[in-house]
Amino acid sequence: MEAQRVQILSESGVANLPPSYIQPPSLRPQSSPSPSAPSIPTIDLSSPDPIPLLRRACSHWGAFHVINHGVPPALLQQIRSIGLQFFGSPMEDKARYACDLTVGPAAQGYGSRMLAKDDTVLDWRDYFDHHTLPEERRDPTKWPDFIPNYREVVTQYSKEMLHLANRLLSIISQSLTLPPSYLEDAVGDVYQNITVSFYPSCPRPDLALGLQAHSDMGAITLLIQDDVGGLEVLKDDKWVLVQPLTEAIVVILADMTEVITNGTYKSAVHRALVNANRARLSVATFYDPSKTRNIYPAPELITAENPAKYREVIYGDFVKSWYGQGPEGKRNIDALLIQ
Ligand SMILES: O=C(O)CCC(=O)C(=O)O
Ligand SMILES: [Fe+2]
Asked: What pTM, to 2 d.p., does this model score?
């Protein structure tokens, strides 16, 4: 079965949204976000002591911008550029890199969500997923060869994102008075995936979502977007637009960080909106445990007054239950709550 490419639908100029992309009324984007809405916090990693701000950002938001993060702005521009070049290429070139769906839902390559159950609503999004770490998973021959420097840029970007994620996990650990390597050690061998998402312009952005509400499953996600905007984070039951900042990186805490910190820090529920005029591009880098890793709340953070809130889980089992059910706006992690 072939996936329907959203880009082809968009370019065909359909005036009506096909029914499989129409969200139920309660999940549709609100018509106009309040102009006074707050935005996610910004943390300057070159400041003498980012920890107090970081602590607030991690406990109240689960998402924040980092600036002065040490990743060369030119590299951020390059990865956005090769992503745009890929999606701007002829379909026959892109199709050579289509996800092999026979290997399961997490196949790498050029993909678009397919109907899993009769009642799933499709995302208005196409993507390209790269498996980058550990090195044994990396196969650059699965990445486009028809765009100059594509493979080199992805390789360099993977390295910089690993370095920044480890640096952030170290500061986050210290902000909880844990040893600097605590979270990195708790996650173990890193599984890193880099997903370039492409959201074509949509005839009815009021009825569709680029990506439905979800929290990321691993430890931490580093995301960059272009200047179009569309990423929203849920804060106190309200959707807050994440203002595009060209040189900043969005940090999103994911479910396993919430488990390890025993809920002191929250994984952020987020989604992507689409718009009628411009296509949007984002690049998300996921930092996940291996499928066999046991994840549990840090014993150091558990006391009589603050008992364990989550059950221990093998990461692969957690992922499997999620693929079975689909996110549908619910937090995956609620399944692990100890009542
Ligand atoms: O495109 C975005 O801004 C969000 C992407 C995202 O949340 C994801 O890929 O998990
Ligand atoms: Fe996400």
From this structure: 0.95
**Is residue 329 scored above 70 in pLDDT?**
no
CB count in 10 Å sphere of residue 147: 18
HSE at residue 298, side-chain half, CA atoms within 13 A, is 23
Q: Is 213 helix (H, G, I), strand (E, B) or coil?
A: strand
Residue pLDDT, tens place only, 40-60: 999 999 999 999 999 999 999
Closest listed residue to residue 3, CA positions, set 120, 144, 100, 145: 100
Q: Please tell me the residue having the least CA distance from ligand 1 atom 10.
A: 216
Ligand 1 neighbours, Cβ below 6 Å, are 195, 197, 211, 216, 223, 225, 231, 270, 272, 282, 284
Q: What is the rounded CA–CA span in Å between residue 222 and residue 286?
A: 7
Token output for 278: 């411009």
What's the 215 CA to ligand 2 centre distance in angstroms? 6
Residue of 84, 223, 332 with the most ligand 1 atoms within 8 Å of its CB, for mutation: 223
Question: Which domains, ranges and CATH numbers included, belong to the chain?
Answer: 37-334 (2.60.120.330)
Helix (H, G, I), strand (E, B) or coil at 4: coil
- The whole-angstrom separation of Cα 203 and Cα 249 is 29
Q: Exposed, middle or buried by CB within 10 Å (0-12, 13-18, 19+), for 98?
A: middle
The enclosing H or E element of 295 equals strand 294-295
d(CA 90, CA 32): 36
Yes or no: say if 138 and 131 are a contact pair by the CB < 8 Å rule: yes
Contact 83, 281 (CB under 8 A): yes
Residue type, 2: E
Alpha carbon of 299 to ligand 2 centroid (Å): 28
Using most ligand atoms within 8 A of CB, pick from 270, 278, 323 the residue to mutate for ligand 1: 270
Q: How many CA atoms lie within 13 A of 317 on its CB side?
A: 10
Residue 105 or 191, more confident: 191
